[in-house]
Design a protein that fits this description.
With 593 residues, the chain is of the alpha+beta class. The protein has three domains: 51 residues; 140 residues, Penicillin-binding protein 2a (Domain 2), CATH 3.90.1310; 334 residues, Beta-lactamase. The chain is 35% helix and 19% strand. It has 17 helices and 18 strands. Strands 1, 2, 3, 4 and 7 form a five-stranded mixed beta sheet that branches. It has a five-stranded antiparallel beta sheet with strand order 9-8-18-17-16, with helices on both faces. Strands 5-6 form a two-stranded antiparallel sheet. A hairpin with a 6-residue loop joins strand 17 and strand 18. Helix 3 runs antiparallel to helix 5. The longest helix is centred in the first third of the chain and has 51 residues. The protein is elongated, with a radius of gyration of 41 Å. The chain starts with 8 loop residues before the first helix and ends in a 20-residue tail after the last helix.
Amino acid sequence: MIRIPLRPLATILKARKTGKNPDDIERANIRQRHEDMQDESRMRAEGRLLVLGMLFFLGFLSISARMAFLAASEPSEPKVHSFGGAIHAQRADIVDRQGRILATNMETTALYAHPQELIDPKNAVKQLVRIFPDLDEQRLLRDFSGPRKFVWVKKKVSPEQKQAVYDIGDPGLLLGPREMRLYPNGRLAAHVLGGARFGREGVHAAEVLGVAGVEFTFDEYLRDVVNYDVPLQLSLDLSVQAEMEQLLAGGMRVMNAKGAAAVLMDVHTGEVIALASLPDFDPNHRPVGSGKNPDNPLFNRAVQGVYELGSTFKIFAVAQAMELGLVNPDTVLDIRGPIRFGRFRIRDSHYLGKELSVSDIIVKSSNIGTARIAQMIGVDRQQQFLRDFGVFEKTSLEMVEASGGKPLLPPKWTELSTMTISYGHGLSATPLHLAAGYAALANGGYQVTPTLIRKEHPTQGLRIVSENVAKASVAMLRKVVTEGTAKRYGDVPGYAVAGKTGTSEKQKKNGPGYDKDRVLASFASVFPAHDPQYVLVVTMDEAVETVGLKPRRTASLTAVPVAAEIIGRVAPLLGMRPHFEPQVLTKVELTAN
């Protein structure tokens, strides 16, 4: 800053020449300097006041805008999970192989309350309990009378209930729109679909999340906004699923079973056309509990249930022996027994003679004969063969429950294990594993990967056995139905059925050993036998047939009739035309008219 002298020399000299007093010049300069300093201070203060005023103005403007926004919106009680972006409520549909709806979204209403705005909390509670009998009256009254500013009353309200709430006329009761997951077919395919629940919630929207089944497995796909108009298409056939569930439930009641399961699979693609587990549940009102408990309706017996599947495994041992060239269907083996192995004895359920052909070992279901074949195969080769069939690992079915269905293998695989596993004891697997194994024999010997997603074309897996061995195996299974353990109820006119029965005792609840009065009855079938297209596995848990003089628990009298009834009813729904084998006419006399 340049300061001007109070007594400039040039000005002083000029004043002296004119006779003026130089002191007047100094006093004038002092006065001017004071005035300039005052002007500068005033301008600086005015600038500061202007900036401060602008800041106050902007602050009040922001507060006013926020107050206006809050006044125009409906307040809700703060929740940590409510933050983090907008709630995406929509979810893609799930449809069957024909495009029919299995799961969709439906608009509904949520009921909440602002207790501080309630005119008469006691009357409001009384009226709400009348509309919603499941509400806890005392708890609701505490919530309405306490310090809370927001209370959820009901997450889903029907149109009739909505109108009844309006009729109460209390301004503290408010309704907000939201979408919910709807399963229009009720219990149908419940274990496959699984169910959904609300995730993040607001008064105008709620996030829908899958909790089990395909809803959980494909949750990310179903919630993706890109797929809202692209439904998830499953391999299930709604009509076949409904028929199979109805017949399985009827068979479960008639056979006094505590549970049942059935799997219907395309032998070429691995597509699961129908999958049922009983008892079941309604996914619209999914019960609370763990799906890992075998006695819980949420437990999926077809996918999670790991059982010793008994004599249904015998065909695998025979198929492997034929593939190795050790036997053929006509090879005769000594079946005299019992086979002694240390303190263990391997016996047949009843006397079957001294020797049987390999084909008859399957037809008559000889444990001793199958064990002899397993001895020829050996431990290592049996393990590799069963591993190729997929019974060493859990299935890759697109359901979260499939992860719990890992087979139980013997801790030490001995020669005795090889013999007992050959007839279905000592190794536990799921009905789905069994269906995949039979599908591999039925399709000509190729490994099958079960899937719940519709496929346009089959994908050929690893070849396990040759085509000739696969055909010979199916031919033996056909004889089981026409001549063997399933001959009484197993065949279905027009749809030649091939299959194998299995009756395995369950382990005792307390202590080691098996309980002969608690069995799992199974029937693994293929149809039609002359051109296999589908495999059906039916299991009945602790079934007992009580029509005769004494209770009977064998699969031939429990699981087989149910499976045959299912095949007879679903085959036409699958578009299969009946095929009748030509009959040889005898004692026919021609008469002239």
